[in-house]
Structure formats: C-alpha cells, structure tokens
Amino acid sequence: MSDKKTTPPPASDSLLVMLAPKLSKELDHWLAQRCSWSHQDWLDLLAHLRKHGLGELTFIQEGRDAIGRYLEKRRR
C-alpha cells in the first residue's frame, strides 16, 4: 500500500467531465485547426464556448484553467 496522498481534481475538472461529450467535441475540433494559439485565439475560444451554451466553465478561473489543461494535454 502506498503512503502517497492523492489530491482530488479541482471542482472545475469535475464540471469539465460533466460537460465532456459536447465540450470535448468543441475543444478537439478547435485543436484540430491549430498547433498553437495566441491570447486572442484563447479569448475567441472562450467567447465561442459561451455562445454555444458551454460558458459555465469560462466565467471562473478554475474553469478556464481546466479547459487550458485539456488543450495542453491534447496539443499536437
């Protein structure tokens, strides 16, 4: 048995999982179109997500961080 303590994921990651099917499809589509992005691209993505009913995560820092982690993990 390991003595390592595990840290639960932030609450925003749980929300990301809950929104996963539609949100991951949007994020994967966005990533497929670029290898890198600028700050303006990031702001445009957040606006796009809000416009398409996926804004729950975009209004809080933890949510934006969760989206950023998702993108960074899947970046080409």
Write a structural description.
- With 76 residues, the chain is mostly helical.
- It has one domain (11-74).
- The protein is built from 4 helices and no strands.
- The protein has helices at residues 11-18, 20-32, 39-51, 61-74.
- α1 packs across α4.
- It is globular and about 25 Å long.
Portion in beta strands: under 5%
**Sheet/helix structural class:** mainly alpha
- Total beta-strand segments: 0
The rounded Rg comes to 14 Å
Poorly predicted residue ranges: none
Q: How many distinct domains?
A: 1
Span between N and C termini? 36 Å
Shape: globular
Relative helix content? 55-70%
List SSEs in N-to-C order.
Answer: HHHH
Largest sheet: none
| Rounded average pLDDT | 82
- Number of DSSP helices? 4
Give the secondary structure arrangement, pairings included:
Layout: H1 11-18, H2 20-32, H3 39-51, H4 61-74
Helix pairs in contact: 1-4
Keywords:
76 residues; mainly alpha; 4 helices; 63% helix; 0% strand; globular
Report a brief summary of the structure.
The protein is mostly helical and 76 residues long. It is 63% helix and 0% strand. The chain contains 4 helices and no strands.
